[in-house]
Amino acid sequence: MQKVIETLLIGLTTGSIYALMSLALVLVWRSTRVINFAQAGQAMFATYIGFEISSRSGIFWLGLLFAIVGGALLGAGVDYFFMRVLFKHANTGPAAVVAPVIATLGLLGLIRSVVGLTWGGEFKTIEAPASTDGYTIGSTTIPFSALNALIIITVSIILIGLALLFQRTNLGLALRASAYAPEIAKLAGIRTAQTRTIGWAIAGGVGGVAGMLVTSNNFLSPYSLDLLLVFGFIAAVIGGLESMVGAVIGALVLGIGLTFILNYVGTSLVFIGGFTVLILVLLIKPDGIMAKGKGRRA
Amino acid sequence: MRKKIAFFILLGWALLIIGDRVDELRVYQGAQIAMYTIALASIVLLTGYSGQVSLGNGAMMAVGGYSAALTLNNLQTPIWFAFLMAILVSACFGSLLGAAAARLSGPYLAGTTLALAVGLPAIANQFSFLGGEPGLLFDVGFPPERFGEEFTQYKWFFWIASVIALLALFITSNILQSRFGRTWRAIRGNSLAAELAGIHSSRMKVLAFTISSALAGLAGAVLAMTISLVAPGAYSLTLSFALVTGAVLAGVSSLPGVVLGGAILVAIPEIADALAGRFGNADSLNNYLPGLITSVLLILSVIYTPNGPGENLRKHLRKKHAH
Fold it and tell me: Which of the residues A89, A98, A271 would you substitute to probe the B interface, choosing the one with the greatest number of B C-beta atoms within 10 Å?
């Protein structure tokens, strides 16, 4: 029983980090109709900035702040200087459909090599903002640590912040409107292009947080966030790619499920487990768990 | 048809002559170009013709490489049988994946295949019969004695790779010009219209996936031959990236372009090496410069010539004609 609860708690931590990555992917997908594979690169770049700041100042939270800002700026920059150019040029011929996806892949490679050239390939660590020793209850020590609790709290704050932004502000309304029906939003006076760039910025910032949190108890390298991208994508697919709530739920389910596999079966099956989930969801419920009835498809 | 056979025989003869005239390194690079050519043909068939994006060709190559190595090591079969097994096993994998993929459109398919490219090489690390990180040996043996003392190992690789590549290209180009090629293009152009014309589009997509995976698996086995082993590191995400780049650079729907694409992919590390040497050979330069060049080329070509340089040329000529 104790092991079950431990696994649940660790899974919740893992899942909450996946949630950020999958939210970042969903945000971009909703506004741009592109799965942004460069998200892993953007988050990695932001995390390297966070690493620089936090290792020089010794304050993790300052690093996190810079990672958010850096990630957001980079996200906005990618949309403004890259995606707009791309959509202007690559819009005819057989490759038009595949061009955006391939372009984000190229961008991932570009960011990876720039980071590699700047910081080198060796593993970096970011000092965790809280103890990584497990809590001791009575006489037993569980693997759930203060850091895990802090990760869950940080992610919750960000999720609440995003929910407020999307539900309670004019900007949130504009973001939702231009994702839901860009033409009508434009008619209603929303500057959809700017709104889209802001969406990319938000996604970039959220990705930066995901990178920092993953790295707080792991290594950072130019390749270290690839797996986070994959799991974030799987979580987003579970949620149906469209729904932000679905992305979060999907990420938590995936995180907990994979942690159960890790603790009860072994490391070797974690990725296979994740991939199987992806294929099963795509075959059985391709619109995701949050899919509404046919009549109200958004 | 007869013309085409003659052309391929002529091409093979030219390769034979060239292979005799150049030094060892170039011969080895020739074998690599042949390997990339097969791998790129698999992308052209899948993406350029049937319109499905697969970012996981590196993973399919891994399947081919590992099945060839397992066959050769455990059953002590002749080499050609190992290559055949690579084709068969990866075709089976491909049809399974294709069955799932045929229901998927753009983003789902791209993401799923990317997940495969990230994960599959890592899986090989986890299972002992696949040799873990150091991988498995894949030794096609010395060249037959009747070729003489002068005949080097690399030349043997080059011969095998070239023959396989020529055969693969010949078969692929015939498939693409056949009913199947036309059907795939119809589906790519407008899948609804294709279905109305009586095409079973999902079945045809699965077929495209299967053939493409078979080609990729074959390329994976050839790659294993040139480096004499199969290891997870050889089939990394970087390889999948490079393949996509090669395909886009050469024009994703042009089969003759794959040779050019292969040559570019072999040239990139060489150029990067020369550049890194000029800037003092720092570790980071050696590791990341090839990636930088590859991704910059990929980005530029996808923005400015998404359908390959051939199309831009044709457009340019048409404009000139109009004046």
Answer: A98
What does the CA dihedral A43, A44, A47, A53 come to, rounded to 10 degrees? -130
Structure tokens belonging to residue A111: 């960011």
Indicate whether A32 belongs to any domain.
Answer: yes
Alpha-carbon separation of residue B116 from A75, A232, B105, B208 (angstroms)? 26, 14, 16, 18
pLDDT digits (tens, 9 = 90+) for B169-189: 999 888 888 888 888 888 887
Number of domains in chain A: 1
Roughly what angle, to the nearest 10 degrees, separates helices A39-57 and A60-77?
150
pLDDT tens column, A72-118: 999 999 999 988 888 887 766 666 777 888 889 999 999 999 999 88
Q: Does B55 touch chain A (CB under 8 A)?
A: yes
pLDDT tens per residue across span B74-91: 888 888 888 999 999 999
Nearest CA-CA partner of A212 in A20, A4, A2: A20
Q: Helix or strand or coil: residue B129?
A: helix
CB half-sphere exposure, B14, CA atoms < 13 A: 7
Could you give the ipTM of this predicted complex? 0.85
Residue B235 has pLDDT above 70, yes or no: yes
Rounded Cα gap, residues B33 and B57, in angstroms: 16
CB pairs under 8 A between A and B: 154
A120 domain residue, yes or no: yes
Instruction: Tell me what the mean pLDDT of segment B123-142 comes to.
Output: 77
Domain containing A165 equals: 2-291
| A90/B303 touch (CB, cutoff 8 Å), yes or no | yes
Report the greatest alpha carbon distance in chain B. Answer: 67
Residues forming beta bridges with residue B255, ordered by sequence position: none
Q: Which of A97, A105, A278 sits opposite B106 (nearest CB)?
A: A97
Decide if A190 is inside a domain: yes
For residue A199, the domain's CATH number is: 1.10.3470
- Residue numbers of B between 187 and 246 with CB closer than 8 Å to A: 188, 237, 241, 244-245
Residue A272's identity, in one-letter code, is: I
Express each pLDDT in A45-58 by its tens digit: 999 999 999 999 88
Does a structural domain hold residue A274?
A: yes
A203: tokens are 């996604």
**Interior angle at CA A8, CA A6 and CA A9, nearest 5:** 65
Cβ neighbours of A108 in B, within 8 Å:
295
Residue-wise pLDDT for B200-213, tens only, equals: 888 888 899 999 99
Query: In chain A, at which residue ranges do the beta strands (DSSP E only) sit?
Result: 124-125, 134-137, 140-145, 219-220
- pLDDT given for residue A26 in this prediction: 92
| 3-class secondary-structure state, position A298 | coil
Nearest residue in chain B measured CA to CA from A26: B107
Average pLDDT, chain A: 87
Q: Which residues 6+ apart lie within 8 Å of A27 measured at CB?
A: A199, A200, A202, A203, A206, A244
Q: In A, which residues are within 8 Å of B208 by CB distance?
A: none
